[in-house]
Amino acid sequence: MTVTHPKGFKASGVAAGLKTSGNPDVALVVNDGPDYTAAAVFTGNRVKAAPVLWSQQVLKGGVIRAVVLNSGGANACTGPQGFRDTHATAEHTASVLRSTKKLMIGPGDIAVCSTGLIGELLPMDKLLPGVNAAVKALAADGGPKAAEAIMTTDTVAKNAVAQREGWSVGGIAKGAGMLAPALATMLVVITTDASADNETLDAALRAATRVTFDRIDADGCMSTNDTVLLLASGASDRQPTLAELTAAVTEVCHDLAQQLIADAEGATKHIAIEVAGAASEADAVLVGRTVAGNNLVKTAFFGNDPNWGRILAAVGTTTAAFEPDRIDVAINGVWVCKNGAAAEDRNKVDLSGRDVKVVINLREGEMSATIWTTDLSHAYVHENSAYSS
């Protein structure tokens, strides 16, 4: 149930010594075809890591035959040398795949992804031999190893599959911190054995990420390295409609997005914020994101405090259409606020569990959206204050 579940893909994950822990840190996903179409969505951060810039260029060719990923270093803010190192990684990977797997492949067919500490060059004397080992370890059941190798502060590997009649979509992801919209901090590789052209893949991926990865927000921090890739092998000899492909890709993206937010650094609460009754979807998303990113709301939930006043105060900072004396708020099924004022006893709200559901009804229209977030805990502050040391 992973990135190698669809036909036509092999993957691997190995330890190259990039991580001081000795854990796996180089992953490889290879598309054996017969198709090599691809689509991608990248970080909205203006400060983009070298592998993002490289992969954006690769995507312009419309073909991605392999993805090489490393954890243990982001290769971001590393200047011209960082880009040369990314180029060298793609060249080396292509060379090894040609010589050992007899693939007709060049560096322009290979996407590169990196994750880890920003501002330091990658140790190429370790990374390139790691690529050799990853090529040697390629296997049709290598998806879980690849998912493990891209972990940084993740506590669990993240895999997902959507099975359809005769074809499927699979994926792996990493991400636990710097989770914020556009795109959300992550590396994701999604594969399908369906046959689809680049335009269809792009439309399906963008529709899927818009309602999944773009709607998780753990800490309001946007990364330099976010990359979501969708590769199609066509090995199933099935050609689903755009709607069918979009539904399957969305299913995998939603599954992975929920795994990301559930594993967010230091989180003790998994919070779904549903905004209903909005005049537009944009208003619903705006209100949801504003509440999700509000530190007073997040710390209240960490303390098991159903402080709905903080929620209303956050809503009030937005430009969304609403009347303050018409807003309703429920926390875990208890309508603690009606018409912008106290309603049911807030002491009825049970926050003892990990899952929290907030419903905000603006009573302005028929549109809705859900944003997923987490609380703000002591553990999050500790982990991120000590991250680079």
Overview of this protein structure:
It is globular, with a radius of gyration of 22 Å. It is α+β, with helices and mostly antiparallel strands and 389 residues long. It contains 10 helices and 16 strands. The longest helix is centred in the first third of the chain and has 23 residues, at 79-101. A 7-stranded mixed β-sheet has the order 9-16-11-15-12-13-14, with helices on both faces. Strands 3-10-8-7-6 form a 5-stranded mixed β-sheet, with helices on both faces.
Shape, per Cα inertia axes:
globular
Distance between the termini: 35 Å
**Tally of alpha and pi helices:** 10
The percentage of residues in β strands lies in 15-25%
Number of strands: 16
Average pLDDT level: 94
| Major sheet characteristics | 7 strands, mixed
Radius of gyration: 22 Å
Short description:
32% of the residues lie in helices and 24% in strands.
Provide tags for this entry.
single chain; 389 residues; alpha+beta; seven-stranded mixed β-sheet; five-stranded mixed β-sheet
Topology:
Elements: E1 9-14, E2 26-31, E3 37-42, H1 50-60, E4 66-71, H2 79-101, E5 110-115, H3 124-136, H4 143-149, E6 158-164, E7 167-174, E8 187-192, H5 198-210, E9 216-217, E10 227-232, H6 242-262, E11 270-278, H7 281-292, H8 295-302, H9 308-315, E12 328-331, E13 334-338, E14 341-342, E15 355-361, E16 367-374, H10 378-385
Parallel strand pairs: 4-5, 8-10, 9-16, 11-15
Antiparallel strand pairs: 1-2, 2-4, 3-10, 6-7, 7-8, 11-16, 12-13, 12-15, 13-14
Helix pairs in contact: 1-2, 2-3, 5-6
